[in-house]
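Hi support team,

I'm opening this ticket because the web form for multi-chain structure prediction keeps timing out on my end. I have pasted the exact lines I submitted so you can reproduce it. The total is 684 residues across four entries, so I didn't expect it to be a heavy job. Is there a limit I'm missing, or should I split the entries? Thanks in advance, R.K.
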Amino acid sequence: MAGRERTKRDVTLKQVAKAAGVHSSTASRALDPSKRHMLGTEVVERVTAAATSLGYRRNSLAASLRTQRSRLVGVLLPDLTNSVFSPILGGVTEALGEADYSVVIADVGTAGEHQLRLFNELLARRVDGLILATASRSDPLVERTLESGVPTVLVNRAESGNRVGSVVSDDSEGMRLAVEHLIDLGHREIAHIAGPPHLSTGFLRRRGLEKSLSAHGLLPAATTIAGAFSREEGRLACLALLDKAPKATAIVAANDLLAMGAYEALRERGLNCPGDISIVGHNDMPLVDMIAPPLTTVRIRHRTMGREAARLLLCQIEDADTPVQSIVLMPELIVRESTRRL
Amino acid sequence: MAGRERTKRDVTLKQVAKAAGVHSSTASRALDPSKRHMLGTEVVERVTAAATSLGYRRNSLAASLRTQRSRLVGVLLPDLTNSVFSPILGGVTEALGEADYSVVIADVGTAGEHQLRLFNELLARRVDGLILATASRSDPLVERTLESGVPTVLVNRAESGNRVGSVVSDDSEGMRLAVEHLIDLGHREIAHIAGPPHLSTGFLRRRGLEKSLSAHGLLPAATTIAGAFSREEGRLACLALLDKAPKATAIVAANDLLAMGAYEALRERGLNCPGDISIVGHNDMPLVDMIAPPLTTVRIRHRTMGREAARLLLCQIEDADTPVQSIVLMPELIVRESTRRL
DNA sequence: GCTAATTATGCAATCGAATGCACAAGCCGG
DNA sequence: CCGGCTTGTGCATTCGATTGCATAATTAGC
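Hello R.K., no limit was hit. The queue was backed up. Here is the completed structure from your submission:
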């Protein structure tokens, strides 16, 4: 008596069919828009009526088993909480939802072995496709997806091999924007807080910065590599930077979180931004326009990135012969008050 | 020739069984830790060896169909991008992942009818449970979950009926902390930017504020209701507030985003925070410690909230007779520089 | 008015794994 | 040395929907 009855079995297609006085196969066709036309209109109506009155809900598990398509896409994320990845995920689910796909998420955190487990779990669920936001520049997981033959798209981070589709921001261009801006303002001693080099974002942004600098006959005043894209690592890196290059007048951080850490480091050292040192970030994450001073940064359309990744993946799912595509999104410089004319 | 062969069929249990020279049912048992003991050790080894060498991965679709358990939980979110919900989701996936469940997400956005579609989609996938972060104070969806008999837990927002489990922050206590703090600082003219009253957070925080105020024989200097928990609505509400209660010395915003809007409004009016007006937020979202001035706010452990919701849900899934539980998490006041002694 | 073509529906197999039941082999005690 | 018990494995059904093929009913054509 106590407790909700769990035994309330779902209505099956067969029950609907019986209620409508037809065979289950007929009911199946009646409820499938693309097959409805094979049936008499009167029958279709009778079946749909029976279905709604019984509260029928088709069991996608069974359907997927039969059709070999789950309409499920797996998304592997390094960190759900990170303001880079949540809008990406938002864009992905939005675009996928419009195409009637659902999204299973796997938030990796850090552990590497853990990541493989999650990957296997997704494949066991027979996802129709995979979106990886976790890829390192040479990622064993990419190998695995290739083996398994699951359509896959990389997002935000690319891998070196270019063996699967990807959607990324043009990191080189982003750094060019940042560097040109600083040079316009008269800066020459420009230092860099780099991101982890095993990630394409860390690696490419550093290379982009160096390239843009050398186009002006300059070298970085100094570079420190942060252990992770985090505030604390940014603080540490900036502290190191201030020691290595005391003459630097500007710092380009590989992303906003690192820039935030740099803010803290500056404050600790009694330095003023932008008075003593200008800072440029990357991503334009929420609220960086409200901090003191409002951060000059390179804006990336993360949501769009997610949407495009979903679009690419859908192409691959629908047509296995789709060639491997890579989309590169253009970033935009947002000038605020953390950079000033020298 | 061109294009990846999609036809690479997955290895089935039957194939593994044949390779190991046993029947598929035996293979099934050999691969199930809880049934392994029924078998001879030698057979178990032969099967597991065959499984790994063939690269077998069990088809959870088929397994779920047979066992009537999908080990899948659906999470309905109002906005993935919102810094309140991403840590909640993070906590949920973390805790659920530890119990070998996967998470399907449905990001509602706004549209109400859309929400019902997503809900139906989740049920069609036969999720074992549901976590709703979208609930309004009287939500038709709660009705639906009750009907369907799917174990459900509400998170962050509760509904009035208390008919399903929930995990929320003690909004009343949060507001008490904020009010006591301001009163300690000598404030008497305290205004409120309230959240949408159809959400428990909006409603309960307002009521909590009024209760705490009246415990000191005070009334709100004024209250404006924001149309949504957004920066822009906060700005608008604050502007209105400044007109309604020009003598107010402090504003309590129903959340940080509204507080951010208030900052902008103050700036527009040439007012200084905390010089002219003190402001308290709610949530302690990322970066509010970096803005100018650093925001005094009520911290909520969103990740914990997610974890607890997952825990509650697992109890309900595992034992249908688990009574409806409601967990209320204690918030914490974080004093920074947006509030000052009068 | 009879065959051919068409349309509408039913039948039965299938997807892959799990599991109740049957059965065989081995063991024990009396 | 045999009946009963335990242990290990196989058989066949089941989960719920989809779909190729067969067939019944209807229409068209001549």
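A quick check on our side: Chain B is about 45% helix and 15% strand. Let us know if the file doesn't open in your viewer.
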